[in-house]
Amino acid sequence: MAYLQDDKPEGGPYNWPSADEATVIGKEHERLDGLKKATGAAKYTYDINLKNQLVARALGCPHAHCKVVSIDSAATLKVSGVVHVEVLEHAQPGSEINWQGELLVIVAAETEGAAAEGVDALNVEYELLDVFTAAEDLEAATKAGRTSKGGGKVETINEPGDDDDEDEFIEKEIARLFAESKHVIEGFYGVDAITHCCLEPHGSTVEWEGDKLNVYLSTQNVSGTDEGFANSLGISADSVDVTCDYIGGGFGSKFAPDYWGVAAARISKATGRPVKLMLSRDQELKIAGNRPSGYVNIKLGADENGVVQVWDSQQWGSSGISGGGVSHTVVPYVLVPKNFRRKSTSIKTNMVRSRAWRAPNHPQACAMTQPALDDLAAAMGMDSYDVFMANLVNASNGKAEVYAEEMKVGAKLIDWKKNWHAHGKGKAKGSVVEGLGMALHTWGGVANTSNCLLKIYPDGGVESFCGTQELGTGTLTVCAMVLAETLGLQVSDVKVNIGSSTFPVSGASGGSTTVGAVSESHRRASQDALRELLVLAAKELGVDALALEAKAGRIQSKDDANKGLSWKQACKLIGLKPLEVTRGHRRGDPSPLSSSGVGGVQMAHVAVDTETGVVKMKKFVAVQDQGLVINPRTCASQIYGAVTMGIAASLYEQRITDPKSGAFLNAELEDYQLARIGDVGEIIVELYEPESERARGVIGNGEPPAISPVAAISNAIANALGVRVPVAPYTPKRVLEALNAAGRA
Questions:
Q1: Which residues touch 13 (CB under 8 Å, ≥6 apart)?
Q2: Which residue of 258, 432, 622, 706 lies most exposed, with the fewest beta carbons within 10 A?
């Protein structure tokens, strides 16, 4: 639908049609790229093969901490088919390597086999150095001198006076608050580091055409990586074209060209030939991204209703060699009492630095803190649902009412009243006990910067160009749906072009910022283009442009559908050249089309075998708000995927390192456990979209549903067993250890 302010071709207003008026948005639509992906016609970066192309393989450092003494490539250069050997700058003799897998030397050859043989022929001498990888062991890290303060914050009812010692005052104030609490509990909770497992490894195929670099890159940042290549190579960004039509997963790990991508470009320049360099699977797991670990000791005090009044926590963890870990600023998570103290310790380990991972910090913070509320409920003999509901008064994001309604929806879908029981008091079926758990989460999801060039052709064709990317989330389909809705057409009537840095700039796909961004740019461009077209049609029909609308493939009178022009008739009025409009949105600018801030509630139903320690998922319910839903099918698909990812992190995924050598022991997919299709149970997704949420406009939904699963499953296991398994993943070994520690083996 078109809504005109005046007959000027620019200037808004920008808006969405009401739910009753919408003909395309809000309706389920299949993915436009689905058939190509399902049939294998879609070409991913790995599928790009250029004429006279070289294939490159890299040597990864076998040690977690060492110095490179020497590198001898003489034997490699004698391998048949080897064309080029490049020792990376950070691997020159004398360099210190701080994690296993760091690429040292790249070999380019005529075939993949020759490149692999060339890598094997390299002769490298190392000097081994001390190794530390035990991020979970705060005492050992302290003794090894691997710790640093990670920050902290104190908030109390009263401020210390001028003459008070601040630390002493805080201690007394915290002690007073706990003394006044009706219920006090303490607990330890944690999450181990896990590793990105993108189906398509990181990498690129690069080719020079004179001084022009063409890059086929597996990336979440089409518009931004041209500059990354350019800066590293000392050339203009205008000299780099990046293309990514399809990507086999990124999840936060593929924003940059990476040093191996830049190295491929250098090798291509040196050899005068295209080069393909993709990481091997073990390299992918070792260096291409991981999620930081986090552990916490918590003491909290609550009133007689279970509302937390005071929180005191000490946390630690690691993001790798740089230290870091889970940010203390998200602990406690979402339900933040008025009085809290939180301290954080950062631990440096000989592991590669972490990368963004679907909702950075939030899944760990949720899993580290919300089980404490569940333990509070158990100590009080209360239903966990009631304790969570009572603590919504502490919701730090202003969404208490949304959470309350979502909890009611979730409880009905999982039949909470029927299936819940006091912790450890469920009826066993042989050695199997069942339990329910819940958790809630929050996320921003603000629309990123995005620009769209829209062309309407004299023959009625409609085509958009936008430098965004399709991560498999339905971005391409969303763009087409917005165009079709605005112009009164069918999705099949428009063509959307994305995936090239030559198109108008659009932001990286991270932070759940893409759907809002592309909805903004495509809606703005199509509304402004339509205004120009309506002015032309109004002159032809002899009516006021304000009296016209675009609907059902026509430009027609709002009062009389018979008075108007077909879409193609109207487009003929454009002339010989297409009508072109470029419009965009800048991140952070207020807009009626998009907003930020969402919340969700998730509930898990598990069965635990107390003899084997195996946890099985029975049912998982995810209730999620995300403002206005453009395509319910792809929106729900995002949630299904996020929940599956969360189940894998809860029960299976774990980066296992040897404590002596620092070696990543399970850095192959045959060893690195992921959830299979039979492991996830029944997943129920509910899109929470009352008018109050729809009216806020489009908000991103990639990250939020990936946050709560670990905490919800942890709480469900505790409800089943009556015993807390403190650290994720909740493997059979850890379940049995927790039972044994509680004298329940």
A1: 3, 5, 592
A2: 432
